[in-house]
Amino acid sequence: MAERKLGQEVISRLVKKLGSIELAAARLGIRPGLVQRFVDGLSRVPDPVLLKALDLVADPDSPVQALQPKSKPPKGRPVI
Q1: What is the pLDDT of residues 11-35, one digit of tens each?
Q2: How do the domains of the chain map onto residue ranges?
Q3: Rg (CA), the chain
Q4: 3-state helix, strand, coil in the chain (%, to 5)
Q5: What integer pLDDT is reported at residue 41 of this predicted model?
Q6: Vertex 22: Cα angle to 50 and 70 (nearest 5)
Q7: Which one-letter DSSP state was computed for residue 69?
Q8: Dist CA 56 CA 51 (whole Å)
Q9: CB neighbour class for 11 (10 Å; exposed up to 12, middle 13-18, buried from 19)
């Protein structure tokens, strides 16, 4: 079995973290079809895309939590 390349592995991890090719593409600012080509190992991941993907994979607060709406506790006394 061929060894996966670094770019392919990083993009695959980002897709797994976000849950879809489309969300990964949106966060990277590229087309979903291109992300799929990276995951499949059909295209080399350019350095700027790889660096952005590394930042997104490494940041524990991004991107999954950043995509979810933040809920605030209600103001005032709770209604019982």
Answers
A1: 999 999 999 999 999 999 999 999 9
A2: 6-60
A3: 17
A4: 60, 0, 40
A5: 96
A6: 95
A7: P
A8: 9
A9: buried
